Amino acid sequence: MDVRRRIRELSRLLLHHQYLYYVLSRPEITDLEYDRLFSELSELEKRYPQWALINSPTRRVGSDLDNSLEEHPHTVEVLSLDKEYTTAKVVEWMCKLADRHGDHTGFVAEEKLDGASVVLYYRKGELFRALTRGDGYSGNDVTANVRTIPSVPLVLESSDDLVVRGEVFMHRDDFLAFNQRLENRYSSPRNLAAGTLRQLKSSQAARVPLRFNGYEAWMDAGKVAWNSKGTSLSLKTDHVARLSYLQNAGFRMKGHAGFFCRDVGRCREVSQRIPELAAGTLEEFESFVNNARDRRGALNYEIDGLVIKINEIPLRETLGATAHHPRWALAFKFDAPEAETRLLGIQVQVGRNGRVTPVAELEPVVVGGSTVSRATLHNQEYINTLELRIKDRVRISRRGDVIPAVEKVVEPADGHGSIFQLPNNCPFCDSDLVRQGAHHFCPNRDCPERQRRALIHFTARAQMDIESLGEKTIHFLYEKDLVRRIPDIYTFDPDQLLGEAGFKQRKISAICEGVEASRNQPFSRVLAALGIEGIGAAAVRLLIENGFDSMHKLIATAAQGDAEPFAAIHGFGETTARALVEYFQDSENLKMIRELEACGLQMQAQKESGEGDRSLENTVWVITGSFKHYSPRSRAADEISQRGGRIAATVTNRTTHLLKGESPGSKLERALETGATIVDEEQFIDLLRAK
Ligand SMILES: [Zn+2]
Questions:
Q1: Domain match, 111 and 260 both
Q2: How far is CA 362 from the centre of its chain?
Q3: Is residue 315 included in any domain, yes or no?
Q4: What is the spatial distance between Cα 419 and Cα 413, in angstroms, rounded to a whole number?
Q5: What is the pLDDT of residues 561-607, one digit of tens each?
Q6: 163, 253: one domain
Q7: How far is CA 222 from CA 75, 266, 562, 639, in A?
Q8: 164: pLDDT strictly greater than 80
Q9: What distance in angstroms lies between residue 377's CA and the mean position of ligand 1's atoms?
Q10: Which of 125, 139, 598, 648 could form a disulfide with 131 if both were Cys (CB 3.0 to 4.6 A apart)?
Q11: How many whole angstroms from 429 Cα to the centroid of ligand 1?
Q12: From the candidates 46, 83, 96, 112, which is the catalytic residue?
């Protein structure tokens, strides 16, 4: 027997039957026959591991090896969508675009699944990487876990370099059955799906009945090698074609989708091409929405609205995107989920910058699939407007589906209690609170709560990511007087903790290792970790892109006392700019930064890359056409991002360079209009060598 060939044959056969079973729900062999093929393959792979395929169907079972969640850049832009809450607004948006770009402009509406967004990258037809959406520019590597999802094709029928974006989600009944068995239950199918994707052992992920539904597809390299099915051509013309490609290739379940266009002939043509697509004029969109809303509760999966996209791909490229979302798509949310519950109390929180926030403590209630027991009350003015008293029955909502808020009092508490008032003094340090604008502040920078909040922000996952110094440990270290200010994290001796309850050698080693590893965190994280008001990851990226790429430059600019250089950054407001100047003029802060520098933290962006070549810093590249040397095209993208450049999918005014291959298409015209530098493959190679 030719073992190698048999392994391939079995792999292909099993992948095919997995597809029939999980995607089409039309198995052609019995479970017993399937199991026999499966165990034959596992046996052979065990004996001849050198011939096991990377995308073998046996990978669906997962492995017990740790897979660390590395970060990789996306080669396509994965922006989030702008949201609307009313049908009228969506129709207005569609009409405006149709007025401007012609009556034949089509719109596709699809169900918006409530799951976890991932991007699948295929090379030569094989799944080689799956990334979470992350921040839209790079995501976490969850490949090993995604391989265990039965409805994700591991191998394509064609040998394409394909990118597919979609949603990992769960069926309601699967969630209920699975969640019941868990010790720590999840509050929604979405949270369980997202948590599973981040499991460190794929054998754990394999146990969770996850599903995948694809909704966008691109050819990664833009190679001319169109296969017999004309995949790349169909992906470039319109979204309807993309959807049917995804469905045929096994990426997509049959869902409810609609096509809307002023041109009735065009509607007819589309509904002939894809009969299951509801097609109609823009006026008919409203009844489509009503149907979708009615159907919602009966579906076996959760949707939180519809996604409406322009059908024509070239028009999408013309429209491009803002910094946050594409101009050619909208998310229509059915409703801001609401619920009623009782207000049990109000907790007064003090943040790292002193701001006082009243937080409602609620009788736990399920809102939009998640259990909520706390909601923000913003400030005293907001409480006054609501006329809020403890024990009131209140309506809460999750506007934009993120932070729950108390919307109104539906039934006042018995008796005549008075409206809740913030205390005059800080509950943590007793300082007199001061009022600035709508908010109250604790002005004492030595306030223990402000210091603890600053420490917790500094070590949190999104900043310095010192897992062993979580909220509880920080509280303990603070209480013991071991860590008070941020630099103490790097100078205190964890061995002093030996013998304290809960501090075994293992925990102490973890703290040492975590602190040590954090010294290598890039400048961008160090800057965000300082906790300056308004300076999170996105603002830090803007600062670095605009040349403020070292602590030294920030301090030198702030020393001039003028907020204008910061305010001039597109996307920065006056308040944030002011906050930067104040922060970097403050002698206490400057002293702390000097101490952190002495502790070996990264104080400039250049040190981020290993070999230190940042020659393409502050450039934004769009890559178009096909290449001789850089095939697949993502290799060119890697070269650029390694040197500090950014990759974008569409040409906008912020694009500085267009890398042009064979058959460059419409992006070249657009780049000529915006004045981006056009670079061909040879010039690109020279450019890389020049450094
Ligand atoms: Zn205080």
A1: yes
A2: 29
A3: yes
A4: 11
A5: 999 999 988 878 888 999 999 999 999 999 999 999 999 999 998 64
A6: yes
A7: 12, 28, 47, 17
A8: yes
A9: 19
A10: 139
A11: 4
A12: 112
